[in-house]
């Protein structure tokens, strides 16, 4: 309780509030622009936090993350175009409501549901995370290796349509991670005599290139196309009687989203569709769904936004990113000298609880700005690509260069951007590359440390209970998508 009170005091400093507010507003804007994802927004803002204090820097990124997940619903409801993958389920009932002349009502339900779902997920995070972190204190090298392998096993879940393409991308990330000095022996590997490669290739320039620059390159294909948005928002307000019916749906969907967020590899888009399906299943008048039912907006929005708090649980307690956005946040925490994992709560308790309070406040800000800015945010959709695309590329260059103040990182970013462009063309997921880059070194170093501990005896990996459980879960996680696809194919 004392740490929570200290966190409340720390959040209410003018600089922390300023950056959190700015991040939340920026996130809503980014989310409302089709094509600009939460991952891309957080990746673009990441370099700005390098010279900042840990708390305002991380909360700026969290504000962008939370705000962008909510912002995607704006375009989903208004122009039938989900701003983010998480808002794809909102389209099914959100846009029909707009066609009925109830756009403002739909946006109000979306805002309230998103904020409520987010707040519930953060409360669960505060209650669950410390206990999970205490359990994780029992980890040593074998357990850490198994944990990293478990993190890599979610590649099969985020591989998209093709498992082979996802595994190829993950392998590419692992290969890039081997460049640089050997973690145990200290001798150079795959540096080809280039001093820039001695310290390895940083994952931040690659991340910016894969997610942000690639999108800019892709948008160049139709940069001069028409980009006009015509939206008419009525003044029909949500009534208490209508909202009262939605409370059960919002609470149930928030629980679904939080639990889904805790599972590495299961993102907000999955949670949104599951919650939509459950809302429909619990409904007595299922035929109304898809025709403009407010429950069809409340369910995916509450679930999608509650994933944000749920995804922070494995990130902060185990150091395992649940999706692409938390992979970027993992990098941000490490840049600030904070190593996510069980020791984070022991060594940086006040900072952790300050972040918790900041997350709660971010969801409250979403509620406030969402309700006040319904009309204003729609105007962002009219920004022409001829302005937006060069701006994104400029931010990519500045972000990559600011990491180490050298042009080599800019070259890496551009190469990653070109690779990311072709990834998009051939529908190859980029997230497994980042997972391989981040978790590969952790897996290798702990595997070799474990062998040093056991003097080369591999039995250390199947005689320790926690290690065995984690390795078993990793195998199940890796092969479950394969069996699921096979069952669906035979059905």
Automatic annotation (TrEMBL):
The chain crosses the membrane at residues 12-34, 54-79, 106-129, 135-155, 167-185, 197-217, 315-339, 351-374, 381-401, 407-423, 430-447, 459-483. Pfam families: TctA (PF01970). The keyword Cytoplasm does not apply. Signal peptide: none annotated. The keyword Transmembrane applies. Residues 17-435 form the DUF112 domain. Keywords: Membrane, Transmembrane, Transmembrane helix. InterPro entries: DUF112_TM. This is Tripartite tricarboxylate transporter permease. It comes from Sporosarcina oncorhynchi.
